[in-house]
């Protein structure tokens, strides 16, 4: 039986109820109607940042049932929330290229078995290959495949010039396309290769994207020092007053905060270690 550790992803059906999906649609509409100028506009996909006190984020974090389901699916001992985004894919838009989201390949934590960071994506409409569904390559988080040597940097402007026949745009042997109903969620290891199909429909595809560290206290100090600076998290002068459930998900760090050099390029050849890590 496949697992999150083996495949690099797991499905969480019914993560949000029908009524909660309707609420999220309203929140997404409000976010998109009041642009902040901070959106990340990748070709064929736009990410609009959310903060810890946005209603869409608080809806996700305030419900113990949801938090428990995520912890159980990941075996997460010290789950902490890092960031959130509204993710949109316009109608009649081409595929989003294959990429992975991990940003710290210079750090040895990249090659340990536990996921250093995960992304939870939930769509607000039923989604399949016809309207821009996610496609994933199971196992590509823990060992390299030939495509790794051909990929451009995950968030680089050079991806705008990729021709349709580039390997990063093509179907891959072994890829899967999870078909998600509105409110279902999929959780990805940040190192997993993924992309999307084209959205051939006449309707924009919206979703909520949240990132977490499943084992915050086990991350290297320099990685925590970097992540704690994420602008989605409360600033020292903020007065968060989160719910009891959400409060346990906000990361803390007592050391000096400092940014790390970003490296989003996975090695052309790599494999992760499944050996136990030193305490």
From TrEMBL:
Pfam families given in the database record: PhyH (PF05721)
The keyword Transport appears for this protein: no
Molecular function per GO: 2-oxoglutarate-dependent dioxygenase activity; iron ion binding
Name of the featured protein: Phytanoyl-CoA dioxygenase
Keyword terms, alphabetized: Dioxygenase, Oxidoreductase
Coiled coil location: none
Gene3D superfamilies: q2cbj1_9rhob like domain (2.60.120.620)
Keyword Oxidoreductase: yes
SUPFAM superfamilies (alphabetical): Clavaminate synthase-like
Region of interest: Disordered: 258-279
